[in-house]
From TrEMBL:
InterPro entries: Reg_factor_effector_dom_sf, SOUL_heme-bd. Gene3D superfamilies: Regulatory factor, effector binding domain (3.20.80.10). It comes from the Eukaryota. Transmembrane segments: none annotated. This is SOUL heme-binding protein.
Length: 199
């Protein structure tokens, strides 16, 4: 019942707040291990969240874990998504948020902090799932509640980017959308964040 009302009862990433303003926070995140899948939503009837099921199967949310141990891996929050322009065949390049009609989507789960290196995590059976280490990074972050449709996210990204650049921060990559609640949580109680990497 708590998850319907937005209660987050799974592990979330630890971070250090370096600066806090009325418009955003600057956070430093330590290295982590992530499981991610990159896909073309058009192959899933336009479903931009199609990667969730693939990743959930890997960690065993919906039954037997689809990894070589097999080992159930604890669910964490948030679920991270980013869009990237597609080039060549199916290779994505993540250098900007927009451009072109065809975009690949990468969805990632941050694995439990008990996995400190990628090789410690169980190997996925599904070859689309990649487990890798993500180095420590700094982000400008703004949170918001409710649903996260593209228009709302685009507005949050534009405002955050302008604030960061106006305050002298150098943006060094694409934004990430972090969603902390399952889809059955009531929209007013959902927690979302837009994160932009900075130097």
């Amino acid at each position: 019942m708590g998850m319907v009302f937005g209660r987050i009862c799974v592990e979330t990433p630890k971070y250090q707040v370096l600066k806090s303003t009325p418009n955003y926070e600057i956070r430093a995140y330590p290295p982590s291990v992530i499981a991610e899948v990159t896909y073309d939503p058009s192959q899933f009837k336009g479903d931009k969240d199609a990667g969730f099921t693939i990743l959930a199967n890997y960690i065993g949310v919906m039954g037997n874990p689809q990894n070589t141990k097999p080992e159930k891996i604890a669910m964490t929050a948030p679920v991270i998504t980013k869009s990237s322009e597609k080039i060549a065949m199916t290779a994505p390049v993540v250098t900007k948020e927009g451009g072109g009609d065809q975009k690949a989507v990468t969805m990632a789960f941050i694995l439990s902090s008990k996995y400190e290196r990628a090789e410690e995590a169980p190997r996925p059976v599904d070859e689309r799932v990649v487990v890798r280490e993500e180095g420590g990074k700094k982000y400008g972050v703004v949170g918001f509640s409710g649903s996260a449709p593209e228009k709302v996210v685009a507005e949050k990204v534009a405002k955050l980017r302008a604030c960061l650049q106006g305050d002298g921060f150098k943006v060094v990559g694409d934004y990430l959308l972090a969603r902390f609640n399952p889809p059955w949580s009531l929209p007013p109680f959902r927690t979302n964040e837009v994160m932009i990497p900075i130097e």
